[in-house]
Amino acid sequence: MVENIQQIAQEIEAAPLTNPAELEQFRIAYIGRKGRIAALFDNLKQVAPELRREVGQHLNSLKNRAQERFDQAQEQLASAADQNADTGFDFSLPTVPNTLGTRHPLSLVRQEIVRIFERIGFNVAEGPEMEDDWHNFSALNFPENHPAREMQDTFFLSENKEKLLRTHTSTVQVRLMENNQPPLRSIMPGRVYRNEAISARAHMVFHQVEGLYVNKGVSFKDLKETLYYFAKEMFGQDTQIRFRPSFFPFTEPSAEIDITCFICKGEGCNICKGSGWVEIGGSGMVDPAVLHSSGIDPEVYSGFAFGMGIERITMLRYQIKDLRLFTENDVRFLRQFEGVV
Questions:
Q1: pLDDT, tens digit (0-9, with 9 covering 90-100), for 9-19
Q2: Are 305 and 283 in contact (CB under 8 A)?
Q3: Which of 9, 14, 30, 299 has its CA 20 to 30 A from that of 242?
Q4: Helices marked H in 185-330 — which ranges?
């Protein structure tokens, strides 16, 4: 037994381990369960009892040496493989600098609108995009036969037309008045949906920002001064504003909002179609029926509301002529706003 141990020890030291095949043969011959060292352990019971302890120590040393030789060779082969591996990458190439993205132009304009109104005491209110008939139409004084209720204008989500995608953020005004008592002074930016053909001037999904102020003694003069301030802050201090009589079911009186064309300064150009004015939204005093349906006493409180499209403001501010650019994710278009803060 001792002679066999010495012979195998010599073979272990002399075994060539220069490639994976030789390493695997070494493992099978000496380390594996059916290897020569395992066989010696099986024959240990045939050794005389007084010699069994000494022989067992030699066998353990032999087994540890074989495992050590195997581990060393395996590590050397793995290290050599890593050094010789062809990564296919030229590490002498210059590094690619990290590129920062830019905020979307609609986000930039929305943020600026929020900042302007926050300076005069307006906070931001938000609501769900999936709405019901009450908050989108009925509470806002839309009659049942109003064209906006028809399928060509509204995306209805149920057969009974009770569930729909909101067509304006006026729904947030209703929710605000239902859940809070005056004074109320908020703007409502958000995404809205209308069933329209997509073109350079229209889209099925777009963004609005609406405003609401309800308190005792609120007048049309307060509305005008608020929008004067917004127009000058957004488009420049030389901007003028005018109101044209109009009709909206939820305001009375109602008015369209125009500003002087900041391209031609009122002289007339293709942007303003020669009129010197461009429309930016609608406004008016909140209809008493709307206040009443929301739980506010119109004999005590009055208020004004206004609304405008964020895409419209963005197109005017940056002279963008195609509405579809906002949703096409063309990097060439978006990179033009990298320097805008």
A1: 888 888 888 88
A2: yes
A3: 299
A4: 220-235, 288-293, 310-318
Question: Which residue is it, tokens 């209308």?
Answer: 194
Poorest-confidence range of 59-63, 71-75, 83-87, 186-190?
83-87
Helix (H), strand (E), coil (C) string for 235-255:
HCCCCCEEEEEEEECCEEEEE
| Strands of the sheet with 205-215, listed across from one edge | 123-124, 184-193, 205-215, 302-309, 277-286, 251-260, 241-248
Residues 104-116: b if buried by 16+ CB within 10 A, e if exposed: ebbebbbebbbeb
Radius of gyration of the chain (CA): 40
d(CA 178, CA 303): 15
Long-range CB contacts for residues 50-57, cutoff 8 Å, separation at least 24: 55/1, 55/2, 55/5
* Amino acid, res. 158: S
Residues 304, 285 contacting (CB under 8 angstroms): yes
ω into residue 253 within 30 of 0, thus cis? yes
Residue 209's contacts (CB-CB under 8 Å, 6 or more residues apart) are: 110, 113, 169, 187, 188, 189, 190, 307, 308, 310
Among 245, 149, 250, which Cα is nearest to 195's?
149
- For 211-246, the pLDDT digits (tens) are 999 999 999 999 999 999 999 999 889 889 999 999
Greatest CA separation for the chain: 119
| Cα–Cα distance, 296 to 58 (Å, whole number) | 98
- Asked, as a colleague might, if the bond just before 183 is cis with ω within 30 of 0, I would say yes
Beta carbons of 235 and 256 less than 8 angstroms apart: no
136/142 Cα distance (integer angstroms): 9
pTM above 0.85, yes or no: no
Query: d(Cα 126, Cα 292) in Å, to the nearest integer?
Result: 22
Contact indicator for 169, 106 with CB cutoff of 8 Å: no
- Give the distance from CA 24 to its chain's centroid: 54
